[in-house]
Amino acid sequence: MKITAEQGSSMLNQNSLKLYMAFGVALLLVWFSVYFQALAHMAQVWSDSETFKHCFFIIPISLYLIYEKRVELKGVRYRPTWVVAVPLILTQILFVLADQFSIQLFAHFSAVTTLALLLWGYLGHQAFRIILFPVMYLYFCVPFGEEFVPYLQIITADISCVLLQLVGIPVYREGLYLYLPNGTFHVAEACAGIRFLIGTFALGILLAYLNYQYWWKRALYAVVCAILPIIANGIRAFGIMVIGYSTDMKHAVGADHLVYGWFFFLFVLILLFLLGNVGNDSVPKSTSQGICYSINKRTEVNLFLLVILIAPMLTNNWLKQDQKLNVEKIEYALFQQFNTLEATSRGWMDSKESAIKPSWSGLIDGVPIRITYRKNKRDQELVSSLHRPFNNDDFSLLSVEGEVSVGKNSYKRVVIQNVYGERKVLLIWYQLRDAAIAGPLETKWQQFLFRLQGQRTDGYYVVAEVEADKTVKEVISTLRHLALPKIIKEEQHD
Length: 494
Known about the structure:
Layout (H helix, E strand, L loop, with lengths): L4 H30 L1 H13 L9 H11 L1 H4 L3 E2 L6 H17 L2 H20 L1 H6 L1 H5 L12 H18 L5 E3 L2 E4 L2 E4 L7 H18 L3 H32 L9 H21 L17 E2 L3 H21 L3 E5 L2 H8 L3 E3 L16 E5 L2 E8 L20 E12 L2 E10 L4 E9 L4 E2 L2 H13 L6 E8 L5 H7 L8 E6 L2
Parallel strand pairs: 1-5
Antiparallel strand pairs: 2-3, 3-4, 6-15, 7-8, 8-9, 9-14, 10-11, 11-12, 12-13, 12-14
Helix pairs in contact: 1-6, 1-13, 2-6, 5-6, 5-13, 6-13, 9-11, 10-11, 10-12, 11-12
């Protein structure tokens, strides 16, 4: 049987397509394997936090947007590119550092960035340009934004206070507490509006992409979607306070204020949808222009992508040797270090919102203190945004007084206050093997150095109260003997 030149060329193209597709599947599988822990942690955050529940919808939305581009993708040339080489290497370095420092935000960012760069490198410029927005939209999968809560609380209090004064309602503000003649309102973390802001912004970016074709229109609408929820949240809080003041605190002070708030947020969403239809552009029809796709598989580029992708997994396995620590009980360790120990609790210590519960709370030689022991493993990170230094339900942060340094040790000094005007001065720090460190980044760095030296990286997250009859230096002096619990058994494994 004779094979014509045309048939031979067709068979060659089919083999090239199969090899190209095989590389694509291999890249996705290796990416998923390398970043599995980071991806699993992202999904866990989505599940645990009400702020990021919307993230579950981001991936289906992105996949659907790519599916909508299927006609255009049939008429482009697929040519793997070397352009992503340097950015991809830098991203893998960032991931290795994030894994070693246990900075989950950077690990999440690296996972999404790596996927985007792999798609760019594998598909080439033309195809990637077509799916650029759906791929970039995946960055909304990264759980980020709760760091802005304290600033949003202040903005909400500012807007509420100004509006109350404009309508002639007497108000006295102290920190996040607003005192009206017949009641007091506390702008708590739940009142910051971060959930509404993040969800609305993600939705706004999608609407900007779907409704507008000019970049300046998309940018303008995105800015509106970022600013309007913040202003709206301040107006919502103001409205709640007006209702409470007008009804002598009979309404809008309990669960009903949540109902009022959600109705107001629904109104804001409808407003954003209506704004999104102002000046919207017609969507050009997708067309392949009658051109069939072509593939230049460039095997050397795909092999390079695979090698670079595997590198961080090998590096992390080499650098990271988890310690199986079996330590003595915290209370027993403290009893050996100090004269008097009394397990008790103070009002500022009990934080219901904290996902990390303290290991021991009480008085050490008369100093109120709360200690949280962490083994610094993936599910027990010492430095974590989940720590709550005080009871957010009854107290709010009044001011951060900076750091107090004593020798090589440093302590963060803050002032908190409750609705009754009672103030507390707290010292916050991370206690490592031989150092007290105030800053989280400095703590991460020291832990990294300890890990390279083969030393223990576990530690305490400590919050101590400076009572009125004591000075900061006296409290630090009293707690200077605080040390980590002794290791009963230590076992190394790869």
